[in-house]
Amino acid sequence: MKSEKISFGYYQNQEIFQYILENDNGMVVKIMNYGATITSISIPPGDNSRIDLVCGFDTLEGYSFEEYKANAPYFGCTAGRYAGRIKDGKFEVDGREYKLVQNDGTNHLQAF
Fold first, then answer.
1. Full DSSP string of the chain
2. Residue pLDDT, tens place only, 80-93
3. Which among 41, 44, 70, 102 is least surrounded, fewest beta carbons within 10 Å?
4. Which residues lie below 8 Å from residue 68, measured CB to CB, with a gap of 6+?
5. Same structural domain for residues 87 and 60?
6. Which residue, 62, 40, 36, is CA-closest to 51?
7. Which domain holds residue 104?
């Protein structure tokens, strides 16, 4: 297993990193720390080429051009434990309450 961390660009003056993970069979997964977005998954078919399995961009800028944003396909997005609204912007795990940003009235709306 190999892993690598590279700079993928900047968003709002914050550096975004891409993590490249490769297993012993040659499968490569690339994921950036901006929204845990999968930018690439590829496999070797056995003839020294690669097959891409997901849609993604080679640069951070690809995720911010106007046509992409207007069509909102969310290439490579990952969803957490909850997708959608969390009532009253809070939840509890093992007796501990976690408060979230109330960005949809009094609720928390998970968004990209």
1. -EEEEEEEEEETTEEEEEEEEE-TT--EEEEETTTTEEEEEEE--SSS--EE-S---SSGGGGTSHHHHHH---TT----S--SEEGGGEEEETTEEEE----BTTBEE---
2. 666 678 889 999 99
3. 70
4. 62
5. no
6. 40
7. 80-112
The verdict on 31 and 6 lying in the same domain is yes
Give the global pTM. Answer: 0.67
CB 32 within 8 A of CB 39: yes
Count of domains forming the chain: 2
Cβ contact 101:111 at 8 Å: no
65 shares its domain with 92: no
Which residues have a Cβ under 8 Å from the Cβ of 97 and sit 6 or more positions away?
Answer: 90, 91
Q: What is the pLDDT of residues 37-55, one digit of tens each?
A: 999 999 998 888 899 998 8
Residues 88 and 66 in one domain: no
